[in-house]
Amino acid sequence: MRGVSDLAATVVAELEAARRRTLTLLEPVPERQLVRQHSELLSPMVWDLAHIANYEDLWLLRALGADGVDATHDGIYDAFVHPRRTRGELAMLDPAGALAYGRSVRDRVLEQLHRRGAEGEGPLLASGYVYGMVVQHEHQHVETLLAALHLLPEGYDGLTSERAPAQRPAGAGAPPAECVVPGGTYVVGTSTDPWSYDNERPAHEVEVAAYAIDGAPVTNGAWADFLTAGGYDRQALWSQRGWAWRQEAGLERPLGWDPDGDGGWLRNRFGRHEPVPADEPVQHVCWYEAEAYCRWVGRRLPTEVEWEVAATCDPQTGEKRRHPWGDGPWRPELANLGNARLGPDPVDAHPAGRSPVGCFAMEGDVWEWTSSGFEAWPGTTAFPYREYSEVFYGGDYRVLRGGSWATSPLASRGTFRNWDHPIRRQIFAGLRTARTL
After folding, report:
1. Calpha distance 117→112 (Å, rounded)
2. According to the model, what pLDDT value does residue 1 have?
3. In this predicted structure, what is the pLDDT of residue 163?
4. Which of 16, 38, 202, 230 could pair covalently with 191 via S-S, beta carbons 3.0-4.6 A apart?
5. Are the CB atoms for 295 and 436 separated by under 8 Å?
6. Fold of 174-437
7. pTM of this structure
8. Beta 204-208 vs 184-188: how paired, if at all?
């Protein structure tokens, strides 16, 4: 865009990239699937599509003093007012209307950007914060849409070919069984990342006792051993609440797994059944399952502080990194992000992305459950609205870290905090274990 700042040009490029990702994902999906609610855990996909447009209308037009496109949609597309299980009952725009709404909003946003640029007075425009918030919001909904597509009983026609095998670098070696983190004072959170969310702020020091953490996420092969050992039937491995949920929900194996008839396992991947690869991280397990697995191996889930320290802190130099590999931008050889392959890679596929203490795959592949509840960091201030983080502090939520194969690189960093209920399995979540030294 001639005549605009470098930041404004970056913002435009990121807004357009996020929209291409959304539309490319949904283009093969028939309208009947877009408008149907396939699970009470996920919205009808057309709701997400119009919600993305409404959020942009609210924050990149009206919140910045410009005329919005249509405020009458606010009530329908307020994610805090309407839980996912009820969204299918709302008087939503149809797919054509949602697309038209999104185009109208985007055209006006680009016009405002061209005229005013991406920066200005006030915290919303500092370093273009509000634009980064909206771009990340769309990417996060793409991940939600991928979870919905994965549950489609008819399958997903956008999966047109088998995934190419991950390219393992020659001579890279396997991840270590575990990585030792010495006790000491470390920094978690951030005060400098311009597009970080309020719950990541501020950076602060923590005292951590020495511990060891898995060098890679728990694999499908290891989880199959847990199944063979009767892990889902041994009540002693489960917490009281976890065992109650295991019985109520009939949990017997990860979501999407089925016996192959020969003692092995098949998985459902976007409507296609295939053998479960032993060397990929297990995914679609809930926190209670993760907790039981840890007891079976005589270990525990890491706290989220332990997870972040292992992912981003160098005990030898005191350096704090933005990503496990450093402060530089993501490249495909560093981590499996951005839904390029519609699933996890083998745990040894990205040695160049290992953390300072030697852990593999701490960004991408699968979200990793931690033992921690979702609480505010010391000194956190809600911004720019309470409903993003503050209203969820102190509930039944458990923190997940690291992003998944479906997470955009723009919304992935070592300080990013995700959270969900401990019963959730539709998300692309796995785990790694830890032990106190």
Report:
1. 7
2. 40
3. 59
4. 202
5. no
6. paralog of FGE (formylglycine-generating enzyme) (3.90.1580)
7. 0.96
8. antiparallel
Strand partners, 336: 364
Edge to edge, the sheet with strand 272-275 lists: 257-259, 265-269, 272-275
Task: Provide mean pLDDT across the span 75-81.
Answer: 93
Find, among 360, 354, 365, 355, the residue nearest to 428 by Cα: 365
Tokens of 226: 């847990």
Specify the domain boundaries for CATH 1.20.120 within the chain: 6-150
Q: What is the mean pLDDT of the chain?
A: 94
275 - beta bridge partners?
A: 266
* Arch. (CATH architecture) of 6-150: Up-down Bundle (1.20)
Q: Is the pLDDT of residue 357 over 90?
A: yes
Residue recorded with tokens 């500092």: 126
pLDDT digits (tens, 9 = 90+) for 297-356: 999 999 999 999 999 999 999 999 999 999 999 999 999 999 988 899 999 999 999 999
Handedness of CA 53, 368, 355, 189 (dihedral sign): positive
**Residues 260, 149: Cα–Cα separation, whole Å:** 23
Kindly report the backbone phi and psi dihedral angles of residue 370, in degrees, each rounded to the nearest multiple of 5, phi listed first.
Answer: -115, 170
